[in-house]
Design a protein that fits this description.
With 64 residues, the protein is mainly α. It has helices spanning 11-19, 27-41, 45-63.
Length: 64
């Protein structure tokens, strides 16, 4: 199943991003990610997209 919330980066760009170290996620990041994964697994596109937006808002507020 294709995840429509995947990044729009090309495969070359995605490889470059993957090489860069990523900061550890906090507990709230883990919670949002788990909810997003579960919504995606159940095929709930609306909830999947809502969790993607929630992660973006959280990331900027807590880690930006």
């Amino acid at each position: 199943m294709h995840d429509p919330t995947d990044s729009h980066l090309s495969s070359e760009d995605r490889h470059e991003v993957d090489r860069q170290p990523r900061p550890d996620r906090c507990a709230q990041c883990d919670e949002i990610k788990a909810k997003r994964y579960e919504a995606y697994r159940q095929g709930d596109l609306g909830a999947t997209m809502a969790m993607t937006k929630a992660m973006g808002r959280h990331w900027w507020a807590a880690h930006g």
